[in-house]
Amino acid sequence: MKKSSVITLILAGVLLTNCVSCLNDKKNDQDDKPEETEETTVETSATPTPTEEPTPTPTPEPTAEPEPNEITAPDDLTADELYQLYRQYAEELNSQEEGLLYGYHFTRLAAGVDQFWVLAVVYPDGTFGDFVSVDGVMTDISNDVTTNCTLDAMLPYDDFVKLPYLAENFYLSDAEIVDTIEDGRYFGNVYAFTGDGKYMFAIVGDPVTVTPEEYEALEVGDLICTGPSGVDFVVTDITYNDDGSVKKVRVNDHCWFLNDKLTLGDTYHLISGESDPVYINYRAVVIPVADDCGIDDQFAYYIPDGYDAYVEGLEDPNVITSSAFWYRQLLNAEDDPDYKDYGNGWMRSYALLYPIDIRNGQAVGMSLQS
Questions:
Q1: CA-CA distance, 79 to 89, in Å (whole number)?
Q2: What does the pLDDT look like over 179-203, one tens digit per residue?
Q3: pTM for the full model?
């Protein structure tokens, strides 16, 4: 546990003690000197004795560069072992002190070894701890890691234990972590799947929509909604057709409303300058995938070699594991297996969900996009 303030006070005390000691020594030296008396100077013609030149002190040879402190690398544990170990240690810390914040972090030592997972902790005074297992002992190496988590990415204990796998949780700062999600159509991102493709961990939100009547009634300055991080979406410009009907509504200069009947029926929904849907009320949740879930697999536009043979070799295929999206995730994992393996049976599997349909708590349809 870092307690830099305590160390600072101790050092300050030591310095003050040394200063007082030096002043006392100086006073004692002055008291010990004999009193000076006036003496009569007598001129003489004797030749003064020449002052001897001081013998120069040879410059010492430069010493070798000091060796940097050797940092002990964390124990070589699997992602599954780390997930269980870090949850247990977080439980132990939480039982000792309430109010701590927690998170998983993928980083490296300043000395430059391979990246590894740490358990990040924030104490009530705002200091960070980065814990790993060293020789079987949980050890704080926060002074040696190259980067730290940001404060807004850390989670209270009750939310932290809802995370089903090891994953950097910086993207969770605006999301409420929930156990289930109501039926409806959402937009968002999937971050991980279980190895059998039957469960996904995603952050999804509600699309920002207006009815045709509401669309026609919009005026410059109208507040549409408040988005993540407290950003207000406000109408900044409206253009009209020749008949006076609303042609285009701009929001925050870089967003506008689109009437996409295939996606959201007759409603207009807000999209950004990159044609990405704007969505709010973020929820992070584990979502089961229905066996008959419809998949719009945008990854199929480019299928790497070997895909057909891969599908034929599947013993128990489903809508996810037999998709081009999944096959490409597996190929990506070969390049960096440690990072792709999140532990507890999960693997990194990123895609946009534009959109995803939930019914009876399950994903019944989704468009997977890159």
A1: 15
A2: 999 999 999 999 999 999 999 999 9
A3: 0.77
